[in-house]
Structure prediction request, 223 residues.
Amino acid sequence: MTFDIQNIKKSYGKKTPLVDACFSLSASQCVGILGRNGSGKSTLLSILAGVQACDKGEFLLDNEDLFRNKKKLSQTVGYVPQGTPFFEELSARDNLLLWYERKRLSEELSHGVLKMLGIDEFIGTPVRKLSGGMKKRLSIGCSMANKPSLLLLDEPCAALDPVCRRQIHQYLMQFKERGGSLILATHDESELSLCDAIYILKDGRLHPYDYDGDSARLTEMLA
Prediction:
């Protein structure tokens, strides 16, 4: 299974955050996208998730353009945006029931992905009472409802404490080990260890980057 992102372009009036974005990834691979705030990382992920349209470009899965097959796109791709758009007064369970059939929800909480994410520990709690890390795990759980092959994550561990980060990183590693693919937009250097390939999004284009642990060099590249 190979995903190919080809020649993605997106403009907003005179601003063009994506000029010619291209890269590919296979099963069990993670691609990290780095860039300054406003560089277009979130725009790229939302386009690949089908939330907004690009001006041109293709998103191929084994040579089939997912942009032309919205049903297959929704079945293949899971999306975890920066925000957590839940019904705050409802419990975690009630929010999940918007995504899962009741029987499958019970199964996933017992021995599936929701169990792996630890969501069973706060399943009856109103979302407004959940910590940031719990909400992020719940968001990932919702994104897994269609059993996607590719997971898109936009700053998944931003503002989370080290324990929450570690829990999410562990799950993402397990997802990769089971054959899943990941595209990760991040500012967090600790997440680069998850990545098999890293790109810097700058001036609308993706530039391959060989991360060697040198934070000063990375900061210079992002400037």
